[in-house]
Amino acid sequence: MGSFGRLARRAVETDAPVMVKMQELLRGNKDVMSLAQGVVYWQPPESALNKVNKLLWEPSISKYGSDDGLPELREALLEKLRTENKLTKSSVMVTSGANQAFVNLVLTLCDAGDSVVMFAPYYFNSYMSFQMTGVTDILIGASNPETLHPDVDWLEKVLQENNPIPKLVNVVNPGNPSGAFIPKPMLQRISDLCRDAGAWLVVDNTYEYFMYDGREHYCLEDNHIVNIFSFSKAYGMMGWRVGYIAYPNEADGLHAQLLKVQDNIPICASIIGQHLALYSLEAGPEWIRERVRGLVKNRELLTDAMSALGESSVKGGEGAIYLWAKLPGSCSDDFEVVRWLANKHGVAVIPGSASGGPGYIRVSFGGLKEEDTRLAAERLRRGQQLYFLYTRG
Ligand SMILES: Cc1ncc(COP(=O)(O)O)c(C=O)c1O
């Protein structure tokens, strides 16, 4: 039996991370272009990198900092939340990225055995956070196959009829892996239902700046709503690990409990990373939007490359950096298609089954510059066409 039987069920029974599976698939395969990982191709603002470069020998950089985050960063974030997100009654905790923010919240808001709600296709890491903390009663709502919007009528029933009532509802807006954007009246309805049922609503705004075709991001604020944000994609800071939680000032005791979790996981987010975040904020949203505008062409190239899948098979991309594409009925195994594309055609995408959407693939349009996206798109086009020919034959 080895030691397997002595490992915690909470870990053993948690899904394996799809990105690690992808890394295994791609190991040794040097010529693969990645449309898989949710990353952007740019680096943080040059001015910000230059400024942190000068801080390296500053003693405070190598010490622990306040659990909640550097005071000057928190102050700047409160201002950003107030002016950009219209959140005026929220406090801030800086975390080691949005993923750690989510784990903090699950540990603070949910007990093992509680039920929670997500909508498929869901963000795989959030699903895993529930699983590994013992929150295994994960109720998965459907999304409308056309709009990819959550089925709010189903949610209404679940929140009114389930016993016990779900403790927390989680949405990502705009979505990963769908790239779909939930319109404000719909999120408001979700929020009202949560409030009336006494459930928390956790909204992941990692892609707040990644909005296309004139759409504008918004946040909601109320005593049952917690918003999560990230510096990773917006400022090209994936490896610096900085995100934050905006939680309601008036939620009794929430801060004290969040602090316990924070103090036991990162203690504080990386200090140098927090300084980079602060300097990046000086570059401001226009710096990000300029880069995001450039992604529109990538989205177009990849949408076009997948036209062989059939009209209306490629969805999403209203926001975030993802297209969500339905494979033809003949492709029952999405991982098999992913393997084929990587091994035979040198292009990597994510299988939809990792997000509760078997029979789909997630294609990211943020990680490559336009010239490389063009190349990757051609590989994707060719790989898909040949796969369908081959499976039909
Ligand atoms: C919806 C969503 N939340 C959180 C994260 C993780 O972000 P961070 O790097 O800030 O932990 C990602 C990254 O892909 C994401 O797509």
From TrEMBL:
Signal peptide feature range: none
MF GO annotations: pyridoxal phosphate binding; transaminase activity
UniProt keyword Chloroplast, yes or no: no
InterPro entries recorded: Aminotransferase_I/II_large (IPR004839), AspAT/PAT-like (IPR050596), NHTrfase_class1_PyrdxlP-BS (IPR004838)
Species assigned in the record: Zizania palustris
GO BP annotation list: amino acid metabolic process
Pfam families given in the database record: Aminotran_1_2 (PF00155)
Cofactor: pyridoxal 5'-phosphate
Keywords, in A-Z order: Aminotransferase, Pyridoxal phosphate, Transferase
PROSITE patterns: AA_TRANSFER_CLASS_1 (PS00105)
Protein family (similarity comment): Belongs to the class-I pyridoxal-phosphate-dependent aminotransferase family.
Ubl conjugation recorded as keyword: no
Protein name as annotated: Aminotransferase class I/classII large domain-containing protein
Residue ranges constituting the Aminotransferase class I/classII large domain according to the UniProt record: 30-380
